[in-house]
Structure prediction request, 253 residues.
Amino acid sequence: MDPYNFCIIMMGGGNIDTTQMIVTAVVMAVVLILLPLVIARKTGKSYREILLGSRGASGNGKKEGEKEEDKDKKRPAAGKEKNSNRNDLLDFVSSLVSYSRKHHFHLVFPGTVSTEEGTAMLTAILITRKQAVGFSCYGYGGTVLAKAGAEEWTQTLNGERSRFKSPEKKNARQEALLRAALDQAGYPFVPCEVMGVFTAKKLELLNAGKMNCFVKANAMEHLKEEKYLADGPQKPEEVGKALEKLVIKEQKQ
Prediction:
């Protein structure tokens, strides 16, 4: 029976007097009080939920019963600072390969060339038409503070501070070994340099630009300078293949 017919019957089919109106009002009040209780018992939902749907009482998109602290738990925690990994290193090497192909240079990889003075422990060696560029890669993340002429640099990672041997000093030694390798390969006239590259995805490198040390992105930008792209007398592939004869590769067990 619909509410309209119910009210008509309760009102005596339309002949309304004061007593009937009072009785009708009392009955309707009882119905309105009991109806939500019956609905809650039958459906497990409040009358308010049925009227407003799944958006909840406030209409602001929150689920019923969801607390603000619960939403905070769902938010991803801020990532910790990390050192570089193997994939970061390979990503840089891949950038060097693309750069080398684009400009018709030659990339020696790995750059572990052996000489009578020792072995250059370089990640790779790029041969342009004017020079050879060795890359010495470092995996430090966080914040690195460089200091010219110092024996050590400082790293701060997740609030912890530590020191490590100066890449400036190490690169100078690697450059001397690369020079010896070029001489031994028969190319004493080819200029060379070693660039330090920090391959971590997130790193703040301070005061290192003048020491030829860069983060990964800045290193690739630095290679766009004229001194690397300029034309010259040497043949990159020829010099590269001569150096590759000196490379010490990992021996299979």
